[in-house]
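TEACHING EXERCISE
Course module: macromolecular assemblies
Task: Read the component lines below, then compare them to the predicted structure of the full complex.
Student: A.B.
Group: 4
Components provided:
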Amino acid sequence: MNNEKQPKLATGAAGAEMPGRADRGRKKRKEKKTVVESPWAVAFKRLRKNKLAMIGLIALVVITIVCVFGPLFSPYGLNENNLTDRYLSPFSTGRSGNFYLLGTDSTGRDVFTRLLYGGQISLLVGLVAVIIQLFIGIILGGLAGYYGGWVDSIIMRIVDIFLAIPTFPILILLSALMSDMGIPAEYRIYVVMFIIGILSWAQLTRFIRGEILSLREQEFMMATEALGIRDRSRIFRHLIPNVIPQIIVNATLGIGSAILFESTLSFLGLGVTPPMATWGTMVQAVNDSFDFANRPWLWLPAGLMIFITVLAINLLGDGLRDAFDPKMKK
Amino acid sequence: MAKFLVRRLLQMIPLLLGISIIVFFLTAMMPGDAVDAKVNPNMTQEQILHLKEMYGLTDPIPVRYVKWLVNAVQLDFGDSLTYLKPVTSVINDYMWNSFILSLIAFILQLVIAIPIGIVSATRQYSAVDTAGTVFALLGISLPSFFLGLLFQKIFAIDLQWLPLSGMSTAGANYTGFAHYWDVFLHLLMPILVLSLVSAGAMMRYVRTAMLEVIHQDYIRTARAKGLSEKVVIYKHALRNAMIPVITYIGFSLPTLFSGAMITEKVFGFPGIGKVAYDAIIKRDYPLYIGFTMFVAVLTLLGNLLADILYAAADPRIKME
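Instructor-supplied answer key:
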C-alpha cells in the first residue's frame, strides 16, 4: 500500500507543477473569472460534477413529472374498477380489451395508475411535512439564536423534549388518535403531513440556533446594528440567508425521511387509508397472504417506488451537502 | 464524576415530565377508554359508570395524570388491559426477546459498517468509496418493512429456506440444540433486515469521523516521519476516529431494549416493539404509555452513556 502510494504522490506533485508553469497566463485569466463567481455557482458546479447526485436529481425530476402528469394520460381513474378484469398480471389485456401495464387489483383497478396517484400523495406529504418543519425550525431557531437569554432557554427546553420524544411511538399514537376521531380518508393526508412536520422540527431548530449563535457575533451583524435595522429583518434577512445551504441539505434529506414515515404509517394502516392510494397503502396488499405470495405486482412496484424515490432524494441531498461544504474543496 | 452523573440524572426529570404530559394527554384525548373497549352488552349503564368510577376514568384528565404520575414514579404504570398484568412485567417479559434480536443485529451492523467506513475514508473518491456510499445510501433509503417483505417473499415463500415469521416453530417443541437452531433460523431474516437498514447510516458516520481525523496535522506528521501507511491509519488515525463511534455505540446500547416495532411486526417476532404495536391497535393505553416512557428513558440513558463514554475515550474532554 505504501509502495503504491509513494510514486503516485511524487508524479502527482510534479504533474501539478509543470502545467502550472507552462500556461500560467491562461490560468491567471481563469482565476480572475472565478473570483466573481458566487458561492452558489461554485456549489452548483460541484454538484454537476457529482455523478451520483445528478442521477438522484434526474431520477427525482422524472418521478415527479411522471407522477404529476402521468395520470392525465392514463385511460383509467384512481378508483375506476373493471370487474371483468380482476387480478390481471402485468402486461396483460383484459376481457374488456383494456391493456394494463402493471396488472390490476382485486376490484380491477389499474395498478400503474394507482401507483402514479400514490406517488403524488407520497411526494406531497414529504414536501409539505418539510415545509412545516422549515417554518417552525427557521422561526424558532432564529429567535432562540438571536435573542438568547430566556427566549433561548424556553425554546431549547421544548426542543430537548421533542428530541427525546420517541418519534415513532408518538407518530403511531397520533395516527391512531386520528382514526378514532373519525377523520375522513381524503383529509387524513393533511393530518399526516402535519403530524410528521410537527414531530421533526426540533433537530433543525437546534442546528439553526447554533449557527445563528456564532453568526450574530460577526462584524456584518455589528454593521446591521449600526444601521439601526429592525430585529426582524436582522434575523430573517441577514442571519438566516447565511444558513440557507445547510437548510437546503436538511430539507432535501427531510423529504426522504418524511416519505419513509408516511409510507410506513400507511403500510401499518395508520396513515393515509384506502380508497386514497399512497405507496404505503398499496404495499398493504401483503396483508392477504395469497396476494403476498402469488400476486407480487400488487405490492412490489409500490415498495420499489418508495425505495427509488427516497434513494434519489438521499443521493441528491448527500451531493448537495458535499457541494455546499467549504471543507470539501480539493 | 458522581456530581456529573447526579446533575445529568436530575436534568432528565423535566424532560421525562414533558414527554409524559404529551403522551398522557394524547391518549386521554382518544375517544373511548378501557371500559368501553370491553363492555359486555348485558351491562347496564350504571354498571358501566360504576366500573369507570372504579378505574378513576370519570376524573378530569389533569387529576388522572397526577394520579398516574404518583404511581409511575414508584414504577407502577398500572395493569395492561390485554395481558391483565402489570405493565412493567409485560415489558420485562418481552424486552429480552427484542434485546437478543437487536443486539445481534447491532453487532452485525458494526461488523459491516466499521471496516467499510474506514476503507471508504482512507480511499476517498475511489471506486471503493463510491461503492460504499451507494451501499450506505441504499441502506438508508430502504424502508425496513419493504426489505422485510422482500426477504419473506424470496427466502421464505419462494425458496422456502427460512421460516416466514415468529420466533420458533409452533407446536414443534424442539429441545436442546434443535431448539436453538430453530430460533436461529427464525431470527436470521429480522437480524439481516435490521442490520442492513441501519448499517448505511453507521457507515457514513464512521467515514466522516475517519475523514476528519485523516486531515489533521498530526497525521501529516506521522506520514512525514516515514511511518508506513498501515501504522498511520490503523494506529494513529483509527484510535481518534473511533471516539465518535464509541459514543454512538454508547448511545445505541440502551435503545437495544426498546425493540424494533416495524421489523418485529412484519416478522411476527414476539418482542416489545410488536407488543407495543398490538397495544395501540387494541387501544391498551396503560401498556402503550408505559412503553413510550420506557423508550424515552432508554433514549435519555443512551445520551448519558454516550457522554460518559466520550469523556472516557477522549482525555481532552472533561466531565463538567
